[in-house]
Amino acid sequence: MTGWVAIAGLGPGREDLVTEEVRAVLEEATDVVGYIPYVARVAERPGLTLHASDNRVELDRSQHALQMASEGRKVVVVSSGDPGVFAMASAVLEAVDDGPEEWRELDIRVLPGITAMLAASARCGAPLGHDFCAINLSDNLKPWSLIEKRLRLAVEGDFAMGFYNPRSKSRPEGFERMLEILRETCEPERLIIFARAVTTPEEEIKVVPLSEATPDMADMRTMVLVGSSRTKVIARQTGADFVYTPRFTPE
User: Fold this and answer.
1) Mean pLDDT for each consecutive 10-residue tract of the chain (251 residues)?
2) What confidence tens digit (pLDDT) does each residue in 213-247 have?
3) Which of 63, 93, 62, 90 shows the shortest CA–CA distance to 77?
């Protein structure tokens, strides 16, 4: 039996947003590897073994998946959203890069999913409708000085921005500092979207100007989108307002 590894995105939360490609490999898999709440989204069935682990053991998880594949198992490594956006695809490839030579020849596939940033944007209209960037606010794998540098350069470039992992209980100060930097560098009316648990029953979306944004509006289930200087609101009498960033930028 020839083993393989599929690194798959389960989307932002709603089951009908999981792609057919991902559903197909999950049906074929002998093993599913991932962070505990993501593995819990995979239905148990005969012939399938679920390997759930803590969030801070990405390399161990990746090595386990690759070793099982080298032994002939059909392994799916699951992430939420898209596996290539601050998720398991890079972790698995890091393990390949540093691992045994034979791992490089394994059948390894990366299967895309709908990431939280795009799901949140779609819920609001098109705030990422022109140039944008994504920044992970976690300083677990990089220093805060680098995060701050990238944030300031993104503001200077007038990008719309998407922020992952904005505010954990153990390090709330990072998001507070982010808001301080935005207040130093942006106009008070700059639009900020707080999109929590998008596409799930707990979904909550707030659109506020920078002047009204507070740190407690974000947690680790929140996607924070910050508009460019040209992002605007289309007010509506029925239904939620639309937020969008125009495609055209004058000279």
Assistant:
1) 92 94 98 96 96 90 97 97 96 97 96 96 96 93 94 97 88 88 96 96 96 94 96 92 92 77
2) 999 999 989 999 999 999 999 999 988 899 999 99
3) 62
- Which residue type occupies 173? E
Q: Decide: 65 and 4 in contact? Cβ < 8 Å.
A: no
Residues 8 and 113 sit within 8 Å (Cβ to Cβ): yes
Helix (H) or strand (E) holding 94: helix 88-98
Q: What is the pTM of this model?
A: 0.92
Whether the Cβ atoms of residue 189 and residue 202 lie closer than 8 Å to each other = no
Q: How far is CA 80 from the centre of its chain?
A: 7
Residue written as token pair 């161990």: 60
H-only helix segments in 133-215:
144-156, 173-185
Tokens 């393990």 — which residue? 95
Question: DSSP secondary-structure letter at 81?
Answer: B
Q: Which pLDDT score, from 0 to 100, does residue 1 have?
A: 56
Rg from Cα positions in the chain: 20
The answer to whether 78 and 25 have CB atoms below 8 angstroms apart is no
Alpha carbon distances (Å) from 109 to 7, 29, 35, 69: 6, 13, 19, 12
